[in-house]
Amino acid sequence: MCGTTASWIPLAEEGKWERVVTAVRVKDTDRIKQNIDAYQGINENTVATRQICMLVTICGPGLDGATTTHYHLDHETALYCTEGKAVMFWGDELEVMLEVEAGDFVYIPPFTPHKTFSRSRTEGATFVVARTDPLEQERVVTTPELDDGRCESRIAWID
C-alpha cells in the first residue's frame, strides 16, 4: 500500500537490517563442494544477507556431470530448472527418483540426501537455487558412501 507506514521500517531503524539494494554480477563459475559448477550470486560473502543465498548450478552432461550426494544442515532449498532435463535421487539410501525439466520447481527439505544427474549424455541441466542459508557452502555435507553407483542404472537417458 503506497503512502502507509510499513511494519518493517522500525526493524531497519533499529539497525537490524542494512537497507542497501545490491546487484551481484558473476562472470565465472566456481567448482563447489557438490562437484558441479556454480555461479555464486547472493551469499554472505557478496552482500549483507543473513538468511538466504542464491546461485545458479550446472549439472554437466552424462555420469561425470552429476553432483556428489549431499545434504544441507538445517536449511531448506528451492530449485528452478531453467535448462535441460535432470533426475534427482533422494532419501536415506537415494531410493526415491524425481525427474525434472526446464520450468519445474523443486523443494528439498533440510537433512535430505540427494544427488542430481542431467538426463542427457550431451547437454547439461541448469538450476537457479535459493536456500535459507547465507553461507551456502559451509553447511553442505557430502555423503560419499552413497556415491557407489546405486543410481546410474535407473537413469532414463533422453539421448
TrEMBL record:
Residues 66-123 form the Cupin type-2 domain. It comes from the Bacteria. InterPro entries: Cupin_2, RmlC-like_jellyroll, RmlC_Cupin_sf, UCP037087. This is Cupin domain-containing protein. It comes from Amycolatopsis pithecellobii. The lineage of its organism: Bacteria, Bacillati, Actinomycetota, Actinomycetes, Pseudonocardiales.
